[in-house]
Write a structure and sequence with these properties.
Blueprint lengths: L1 H5 L3 E4 L3 H5 L1 H11 L6 E5 L4 H7 L6 E6 L5 E6 L2 E6 L5 H11 L6 E4 L17 H8 L8 H14 L5 E5 L6 H18 L5 H7 L5 E2 L3 E4 L7 H9 L8 E2 L5 E2 L2 E5 L3 E5 L15 E3 L1 H15 L1 H14 L4 H4 L3 H15 L11 H12 L9 H4 L7 H14 L10 H12 L18 H7 L9 H12 L2 H4 L9 H11 L5 H11 L1
Parallel strand pairs: 1-2, 1-6, 2-5, 3-12, 6-7, 7-8, 13-14
Antiparallel strand pairs: 3-4, 9-13, 10-11
């Protein structure tokens, strides 16, 4: 604790389940090996109840529960978090600790698990988010968004002597470092134009020898804490395994359950040095390789398969991804999506073999009976994922003269499945709750009025309007060579009960 207070090396923002069971566990691994002698300072920037209900009452400890494919589980105490604070100047004591850490020359890395939405500064129409616009109107010290407060903390580091630092996003988003950099610079440059901060600060932020924004690829499935796991812990004498849902809808507990498999690939760009994370299994490489690994995972070998299972699972009434893998139609669907449609356009990153990675996904990860992951969780924010998980594959086919985009069956099927999902009626004709998504109101309104048996002349114009949204799909689906397949599968799926299943089976037979 004292070492961390005197010379912090690693500060992390985002105190949710992924952080507690992965980055914090990596730090614990290095502490156990004697490779580090300082722990983590972490700051919550969204849901302060986590600090009050999880961290402080339990001395910042977490029980990490690893759910293995062979049916066994392992447990470890993760105690690497030394200080957990609320990232807001509304809490002066917490804020002072974060400022002190940022002003310390010892600080090497600031990492983030704030979700992909945490880097957003613009609405879908290109206008600034109201919260960001309000921050830019006010004095920097009155910033109330996390990104605004992050810029203030970086200004503190600049004022302490232009100290170097790496800002490292661990969020599951392509080019995550670039997204963080653009958000930080937009806020800082706007304040600088208004002469609220010095121009030299912008020079500091744009000097990669001072401030770096490495790209990363992270991969670890971390479902919400599960009641069955809580019961197993109680049988082992663990007293406080109650599940907590905060007022902001965060699902958490004093334990975190996650899969055994994990990958973290980081661009090796750290102007002030870094913790020796390679000794805990992290890959360090160049930006191009990080990008290839991210594309392998995000565009072909994992994320598209997860989304396909999520959407179809919601429509077919499934509650667990694991159970979907016992459904022959669904399993065949993602096998075709991965092996037949995905692998032909994957770029081999060399450090991880794409075929072996895909084999592991299908035989060890999705089939893990102890992984309580749900289609409903994975379906969250799907509108923000389609352009990467499917749009990039279509564009890769279009760009390669040796590949026939019209040979794709599962990609257009999944796009049709998502449109069908937006009707919020399952394959038995029963209504269900759609998972949260920032564009849900917008996209559902477009398809409003479509129901079982709607004639083509009624639904097609609405469907084409949605499919023409390039921001969602990454390309204009309605003007693409797969447009007719998407519309055809959608037409089948709204023709009556049981037709979602029929469309999936049909696509898998072709």
């Amino acid at each position: 604790m004292e070492n961390t207070k005197k010379r912090p090396e690693w500060l992390h923002f985002g105190t949710g389940n992924l952080f507690r069971v992965y980055p914090a566990a990596l730090c614990q691994n290095l502490l156990n090996k004697g490779e580090m002698d300082t722990g983590l300072v972490c700051g919550d920037c969204y849901d302060f109840e986590l600090i009050d209900k999880l961290f402080r009452p339990h001395d910042n400890l977490t029980v990490g529960v690893t759910l293995k494919a062979d049916g066994s589980i392992s447990k470890e105490i993760i105690g690497s978090v030394m200080q957990a604070e609320k990232c807001s100047n509304e809490f002066p004591e917490d804020w002072a600790i974060l400022v002190k850490a940022f002003r310390n020359p010892s600080l090497k890395m600031v990492s983030f698990t704030i979700t992909e939405k945490g880097y957003a500064i613009y609405n879908t129409d290109g206008t600034l988010l109201d919260s960001i616009r309000d921050d830019l109107k006010n004095l920097p010290m009155k910033a109330h968004t996390f990104l605004g407060r992050l810029v203030i903390l970086l200004l503190e580091r600049f004022n302490a002597g232009k100290l170097p630092i790496a800002l490292v996003s661990f969020d599951n988003s392509p080019h995550n470092g670039e997204k963080l950099q653009k958000a930080v610079l937009k806020i800082a440059q706007t304040w600088q134009i208004k002469k609220l901060i010095p121009k030299e600060f912008i020079d500091y932020l744009t000097d990669s020898s001072k401030v770096a924004f490495p790209w990363t690829m992270i991969d670890k499935i971390t479902p919400r804490p599960n009641e069955k796991i809580a019961e197993l812990l109680k049988k082992d004498g663990y007293e406080d395994a109650a599940l907590i849902i905060t007022r902001k809808g965060t699902y958490c507990s004093t334990f975190v359950n996650s899969e055994e498999v994990q990958y973290l690939v980081i661009e090796d760009q750290f102007p002030n040095g870094r913790p020796p994370l390679e000794k805990a299994g992290v890959y360090f490489t160049d930006r191009e390789t990080v990008n290839k690994v991210e594309k392998m995972k995000g565009c072909t070998c994992l994320n598209p398969l997860h989304t396909a299972l999520a959407i179809s699972g919601c429509l077919l009434g499934y509650k667990l991804i694991y159970d979907e893998m016992k459904d022959n139609d669904l399993r065949k669907m993602i096998e075709i999506l991965g092996y037949k449609e995905g692998l032909p356009v994957v770029v081999d990153p060399k450090i991880i073999n794409p075929k072996k990675f895909l084999d592991e996904v299908l035989t060890k990860r999705f089939t893990n009976p102890f992984m309580p992951d749900t289609p409903q969780r994975i379906a969250t924010d799907t509108s923000q994922k389609l352009s990467i998980r499917f749009g990039e594959t279509v564009k890769a086919y279009l760009a390669n003269p040796e590949l026939d985009v019209k040979s794709l069956e599962i990609v257009p099927l999944v796009l049709a499945l998502w449109c069908r999902y937006l009707l919020a009626i399952d394959d038995e004709g029963k209504s269900f709750e759609l998972s949260s998504d920032p564009f849900l109101g917008e996209v559902c309104m477009i398809l409003e009025g479509i129901k079982f048996g709607s004639p083509k002349e009624e639904f097609e114009p609405k469907l084409e309007t949605l499919l023409s949204n390039e921001k969602i799909f990454g390309f204009n689906v309605s003007e693409s060579p797969i447009a007719e397949k998407v519309k055809s599968y959608f037409e089948i799926m709204i023709s009556g009960k049981g037709k979602v299943r029929e469309a999936i089976a049909q696509a898998c037979r072709k």
